[in-house]
Amino acid sequence: MKLDAELRFAVADLYATYAACIDDGRFEEWPELFTDDAWYRIVARENYDRDLPLSVVSLKGKPMMRDRVYGISSTIFHAPYYQRHIISTPLLFVSEEAVVHATANYAVFRTKRDMDADIYNIGQYLDEIVSTEGGLRFRKKFCVYDNDIIPNSLIYPV
């Protein structure tokens, strides 16, 4: 796969779709941005850098992601809040196997209706993206957050 302008736009569109899906609360669409066997992981920078397996969230495959969505919409009770993602332009590298390796910085802001907005999570996406019949999809998405403490519980995808 050649790294050209069309691929760059397609990757940018995938990131924009990812952020809008979560920010708009369309969580049922979120697993469809991944391959069937994708690995989604939210991990602290310290654990990632030391190659430690402990993660806040580690979902392997769409069934686990759909289960997470079910939990968000049906079993987890919390004060409602909004998330807004700011994602940098990703650095891209295409391997010989036509896998796009993308690295992008992200910031997630959280707002509760009766409170000031706060910075919820800041880090880096380390992604593997592949071309499928349905378009580009994440094969691996690691959300490596820089802060040691996540305020309250982590409910929505980052």
UniProtKB/TrEMBL annotation:
Keywords: Oxidoreductase
Gene Ontology terms, MF aspect: oxidoreductase activity
Name of a matching Pfam family: SnoaL_4
Limits of the SnoaL-like domain: 6-140
Xref: Gene3D superfamilies: 3.10.450.50
CDD domains from the UniProt entry: ring_hydroxylating_dioxygenases_beta
InterPro entries per UniProt: NTF2-like_dom_sf, Rng_hydr_dOase-bsu, SnoaL-like
Iron-sulfur is among the record's keywords: no
Family: Belongs to the bacterial ring-hydroxylating dioxygenase beta subunit family.
The name this protein goes by in its record: Salicylate hydroxylase
Organism placement in taxonomy: Bacteria, Pseudomonadati, Pseudomonadota, Alphaproteobacteria, Sphingomonadales
